[in-house]
Amino acid sequence: MHILCYFVSMGEKAGEKLNAGITASRWRGFHWPLVSFLSGLLVYYLLFKTLVDPLNPQIEALNSFSYQFLWEGEAPASRVTVVSADLNARYKHAIPSVLMAFSFLAALVVAFGFILPRFGRGALACGAAALPAGAFIGFTEQYNNAIRMAVADCPPGGTMDFCPLDQAVIRGLPGSSFTMETLSQIRFLTDFNSIISVAAIFLLGFCFFFLARSAGPQGLDPAHLLIRRRSLEAALVIAGLVLVFSVATTHGFYHLASSFMQPTFGVPLGQLASAGSTYWGAVYTTVLIVVALPATISIARDSQLGSEAALPDGSFKERREWREQHGLGIGLKDMLAGVAASFAPILTAPSLDLIQAVLGAN
Question: Deepest in the core among 123, 193, 271, 336, taking most CB within 10 A?
Answer without folding.
Answer: 193
